[in-house]
């Protein structure tokens, strides 16, 4: 099948900025999550060992905020692009807003707040829509913890994510400061010929203009522009 018959593969890397307009805090912006907490107090295995109740409270509060949040137009447009492309979303976010907007191929590199895992066996994962309390047990009897990748822990879905990036015909980066690895390194896997867009309110200084169409704007405004460019003026959802 030639390219036009076979749907082109759009790969998207998202970070906290894609969920900012849904009211969820980013990490490194003013007033961000890491302003309220030091990473090392709430998002490392050491923090979990030293103060598991603080870590559980931190993620219980974020789980409630995610549950009360709604997908925004950027999430919705990304889902609607599935009518025109094979779309793979690789996200650093632990919220489920891409899925709730209708995206069907979402890889969470850093875990998912709506799931929990055994503190002894990270492969033992259960759904979690409420708070996790100290002494809540996983099916193996161990303490339940958020199914979230902390600093110093191996990320998830990396082979699948790099494979998708290597097969991309189109690549969009939305709302990430590209400071966390190996996630930020996904850009190195994208083929040279691939058309690339980067949408961020503040374009990270490190990106050379040649290879990216840079849109220094919000995720929703940027995605409306990119949607129009990729699909034409068709109104989303028509
Ligand atoms: C690991 C889950 C090894 C928790 C998170 C080199 C190679 C490998 C590792 C490292 C390396 N160098 C350093 C490391 C270690 C470390 C790391 O990267 N540290 C950084 C701080 C330097 N990496 C790790 O520890 C990783 N693990 O390497 O393991 C290993 C291997 C085998 C065996 C054992 C060990 C694990 C990293 C994962 C950590 N967990 N999250 C949670 O969510 O609570 S990371 C955390 O940061 C979030 O997931 C977040 O998504 C991620 C990245 O942040 P961003 O999404 O980019 O958010 P940020 O606030 O930074 O930026 C927001 C952007 O949006 C900004 O640009 C802003 O301008 C923009 N914006 C804001 N509003 C809007 C907007 N844009 C558009 N519209 C808007 N409205």
How is the topology of this model organized?
Elements: E1 9-14, H1 33-36, H2 39-42, H3 45-50, H4 52-68, H5 73-80, E2 86-91, H6 97-101, E3 106-108, E4 111-118, E5 125-127, E6 144-148, H7 158-166, E7 170-174, E8 195-199, E9 213-215, H8 219-231
Parallel strand pairs: 1-2, 1-7, 2-3, 7-8, 8-9
Antiparallel strand pairs: 4-5, 4-6
Helix pairs in contact: 5-8
Bound molecules: ligand BV8.
Ligand BV8 binds at residues 15-17, 20-21, 26-29, 32, 43, 92-94, 110, 148-155, 175-177, 179-182, 200-202, 218-219.
How would you describe what is shown here?
This protein has 238 residues and is of the alpha/beta class. The protein has two domains: 1-24 and 71-110 and 155-238, TPP-binding domain (Rossmann fold, 3-Layer(aba) Sandwich); 26-68 and 113-148, SIR2/SIRT2 'Small Domain' (2-Layer Sandwich). It is 28% helix and 18% strand. The protein has a six-stranded parallel sheet, sandwiched between helices. Strands 5-4-6 form a three-stranded antiparallel sheet. The mean pLDDT is 92. The site of ligand BV8 has 35 residues, from loops.
The topology string of helices and strands comes to: EHHHHHEHEEEEHEEEH
The beta-strand count equals 9
Number of domains: 2
Strand content: 15-25%
The structure class reads: alpha/beta
**Rg:** 18 Å
Shape: globular
Percent of residues in helices comes to: 25-40%
The residue ranges in which pLDDT falls below 50 over 5 or more consecutive positions are none
| CATH architecture term of the largest domain | 3-Layer(aba) Sandwich
Instruction: Please give the largest β-sheet.
Output: 6 strands, parallel
């Amino acid at each position: 099948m030639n390219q036009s018959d076979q749907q082109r593969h759009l790969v998207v890397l998202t970070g906290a900025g894609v969920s900012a307009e849904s009211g969820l805090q980013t990490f490194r912006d003013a007033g961000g999550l890491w302003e309220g907490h030091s990473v090392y107090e709430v998002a490392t295995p050491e923090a979990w060992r030293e103060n598991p109740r603080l870590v559980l409270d931190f993620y219980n509060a974020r789980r409630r905020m995610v549950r009360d949040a709604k997908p925004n137009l950027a999430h919705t447009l990304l889902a609607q692009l599935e009518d025109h492309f094979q779309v793979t979303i690789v996200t650093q976010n632990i919220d489920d807003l891409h899925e709730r907007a209708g995206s069907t191929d979402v890889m969470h590199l850093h875990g998912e707040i709506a799931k929990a895992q055994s503190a002894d066996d990270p492969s033992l994962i259960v759904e979690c829509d409420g708070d996790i309390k100290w002494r809540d047990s996983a099916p193996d009897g161990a303490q339940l913890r958020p199914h979230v990748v902390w600093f110093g822990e191996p990320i998830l879905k990396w082979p699948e994510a790099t494979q998708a990036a290597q097969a991309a015909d189109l690549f969009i980066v939305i709302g990430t400061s590209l400071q966390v690895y190996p996630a930020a390194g996904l850009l190195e896997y994208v083929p040279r010929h691939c058309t690339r867009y980067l949408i961020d309110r503040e374009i990270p200084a490190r990106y050379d203009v040649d290879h990216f169409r840079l849109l220094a704007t919000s995720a929703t405004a940027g995605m409306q522009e990119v949607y129009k460019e990729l699909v034409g003026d068709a109104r989303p959802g028509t």
